[in-house]
Specification:
single chain; about 290 residues; alpha/beta; Transcription Regulator spoIIAA; 2 domains; 5-stranded mixed sheet
């Protein structure tokens, strides 16, 4: 019976790198395959539940001497094409595999390897959806480049290096997008009973001497300077002398140390308002109803 090894850290330090690599490749492939087929069948995938199940299955495989657990894109494609939707399909497949192992191994040995490879290629070809690539090109050229580089990396340098490159490129792309986050100077829209961008709502009420500014992202090091410049520009561009500047924080989730420092120094505006407030614009509506200039 398999048992838990007690050989100390010697084997652990050797195996930890490959184990982490296997996990990233297996889980990434599994969750992407699940999302791909779920979108085709109008279903949803709970990533956290999948990760929990994946972890339990890997632990069970390790304790029983099994292989690492992963999704098979080709077999998933075959199941989807044949209409399998429940675990009954897996049971039938398991029975078929058992019968082949028991009675058909000798005939199968004469089947050329390219034939077996062709079966897998045909089954996996349905995973490539040209329409998805066209939609990606139409919506985000940056993500299209990341997808293309990742696909080429898998072929040229291997799955694990390509996956690491994809992760780094995705983080860079996310930082690039959030470094130039959307913002707005707000006014009171009486019809909807809330503050909104005066650019989208030219008839919004603006109180003379008060600037309400909204930044539509969490503050962090990559967009902190952009935030300060835009906040300062909103005050400097006001049509009346500003005595109160209000930062609408309703769209800000978190703030890192660099952004917090910039947020504090953003009170040094020119001309410097006599009051600065950092809160939701809803509080302004409760304490001081806007009036038309």
């Amino acid at each position: 019976m398999p048992s838990i090894p007690v050989d100390g850290l010697a084997h652990f330090t050797v195996l930890i790198g490959p184990a982490v690599g296997i996990f990233f490749v297996a889980f990434s492939d599994s969750i992407l395959t699940a999302r791909s087929f779920a979108s085709r069948n109008n279903e949803t995938v709970d990533t956290n539940a999948e990760l929990n199940a994946f972890g339990v299955a890997q632990i069970a495989a390790g304790l029983t001497g099994g292989f690492p657990i992963a999704t098979s894109g080709s077999r998933t494609s075959v199941n989807n094409q044949t209409g399998a939707r429940t675990q009954v399909g897996q049971i039938i497949a398991a029975v078929a595999v058992a019968l082949v192992l028991l009675f058909l191994t000798e005939p199968i040995q004469y089947l050329p390897s390219p034939v077996l490879g062709a079966i897998i290629v045909v089954a996996a070809a349905s995973l490539i959806v040209p329409a998805e690539w066209r939609a990606l090109a139409a919506s985000s050229r940056g993500e299209l480049w990341i997808a293309g580089i990742t696909a080429a990396g898998v072929v040229l340098i291997g799955v694990i290096p390509a996956l690491l490159i994809a992760m780094v490129l995705s983080l860079i792309d996310m930082a690039r997008r959030r470094a130039k986050s959307a913002d707005a100077v707000e006014g009171w829209v009486s019809e909807d009973n809330h503050f909104a961008s005066i650019e989208r709502h030219p008839d919004a009420l603006v109180t003379p001497g008060i600037v309400v500014y909204r930044f539509d992202a969490s503050l962090f090091y990559a967009n902190a300077t952009h935030f300060k410049d835009r906040f300062t520009s909103a005050v400097d561009g006001a049509p009346y002398p500003v005595h109160t500047a209000i930062l609408d924080t309703s769209c800000m989730g978190t703030t890192d140390a660099t952004a917090a420092s910039v947020k504090r120094t953003s009170t040094r505006l020119s001309p410097r308002p006599s009051r600065r407030r950092f809160n939701s614009a809803k509080d302004l509506a409760r304490s001081q109803p806007p009036r038309r200039a």
